[in-house]
Amino acid sequence: MPIPDADWSDFQAFLAIARSGQLARAARRLGVNPTTMGRRLRRLEAALGTTLFEQTRTGQVLTEAGEALLAAVEQMDRAASGITGSGEGEDGLTGTLRIGTPEGFATDFLSPRLAQFQSLHPGLAIDLVSAPGEALSPGRREADVAIVLARPRKGPLVAHKLADYALGLYASADYLAAHGVPRAPADLLEGHRLVGYIPDRLHAPELRYLDEIHPALKASLRAPSITAQHSLIANGAGVGVLPAFMAHADPRLVPVLSDVRLERAFWFVTHEDIRRLPRIRAFRQWLDETVRAGEEVLMPRGARAAPENARKKELPS
Question: HTH lysR-type domain: which residues (predicted)?
Answer without folding.
Answer: 7-63
